[in-house]
């Protein structure tokens, strides 16, 4: 797989709670590749947390930073890159990912996502009256776009190392 990748990166896309960061970290370790998390890099570049960026600068500013950070990271492949759930919705970002990487969509059912996002409280888009309805709406908007990924792996509740095996299988 490493030979097949060359300088290209493995880019994980999908909804919040799909497991992009946790699976990505383990996948990178398994393949002996560097790992980067776009959300973490944005936070470091901004010197603020994501909720703070949304609150102080708004979502458009966040999206702009996200696009730049991902473009910069992709120049430094090969690596495993976990992106934020909205990143792949941006056409420029999709093009950059297609040029520099192989895209893996971690696809999960609404109930799986809902259970997982409830464990963490740092997603500004889910600060709504009805997070379930919000997630359902995002799924509807995003799944047709995520479907452009090179491979799709269904994210379900198995040990994360098993998810890593499934990603590697899908890529080889
Ligand atoms: C977002 C997902 C988050 C983060 C931001 C917006 C989204 O990343 O980038 O809160 O639009 O789906 P995760 O997918 O890692 O939670």
UniProtKB/TrEMBL annotation:
Its EC number is 2.7.1.71. Pathway: Metabolic intermediate biosynthesis; chorismate biosynthesis; chorismate from D-erythrose 4-phosphate and phosphoenolpyruvate: step 5/7. GO terms for cellular component: cytosol. ATP binds at residues 17-22, 123. Catalyzes the specific phosphorylation of the 3-hydroxyl group of shikimic acid using ATP as a cosubstrate. Binds 1 Mg(2+) ion per subunit. One of its GO terms (biological process) is aromatic amino acid family biosynthetic process. Keywords: Amino-acid biosynthesis, Aromatic amino acid biosynthesis, ATP-binding, Cytoplasm, Kinase, Magnesium, Metal-binding, Nucleotide-binding, Transferase. It is found in: Cytoplasm. GO terms for molecular function: ATP binding; magnesium ion binding; shikimate kinase activity. It comes from Ancylobacter novellus (strain ATCC 8093 / DSM 506 / JCM 20403 / CCM 1077 / IAM 12100 / NBRC 12443 / NCIMB 10456). The lineage of its organism: Bacteria, Pseudomonadati, Pseudomonadota, Alphaproteobacteria, Hyphomicrobiales. Its cofactor is Mg(2+). Monomer. Signal peptide: none annotated. The keyword Zinc does not apply. Coiled coil: none annotated. Pfam families: SKI (PF01202). This is Shikimate kinase. It catalyses: shikimate + ATP = 3-phosphoshikimate + ADP + H(+). Mg(2+) binds at residue 21. Substrate binds at residues 39, 63, 85, 142.
């Amino acid at each position: 797989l490493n030979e097949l990748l060359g300088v290209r990166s493995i880019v994980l896309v999908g909804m919040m709670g799909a497991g992009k960061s946790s699976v990505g970290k383990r996948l990178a370790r398994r393949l002996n590749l560097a790992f980067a998390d776009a959300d973490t890099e944005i936070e470091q570049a901004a010197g603020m947390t994501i909720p703070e960026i949304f609150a102080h600068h708004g979502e458009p500013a966040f999206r702009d930073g996200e696009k730049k950070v991902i473009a910069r990271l992709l120049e430094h492949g090969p690596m495993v890159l976990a992106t934020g759930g909205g990143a792949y919705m941006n056409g420029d970002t999709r093009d950059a990912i297609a040029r520099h990487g192989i895209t893996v969509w971690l696809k999960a059912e609404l109930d799986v996502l809902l259970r997982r996002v409830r464990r963490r409280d740092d997603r500004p888009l889910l600060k709504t009256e009805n997070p379930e309805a919000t997630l359902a709406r995002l799924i509807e908007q995003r799944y047709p776009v995520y479907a452009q990924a090179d491979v799709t792996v269904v994210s379900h509740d198995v040990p994360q190392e098993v998810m890593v095996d499934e990603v590697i299988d899908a890529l080889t």
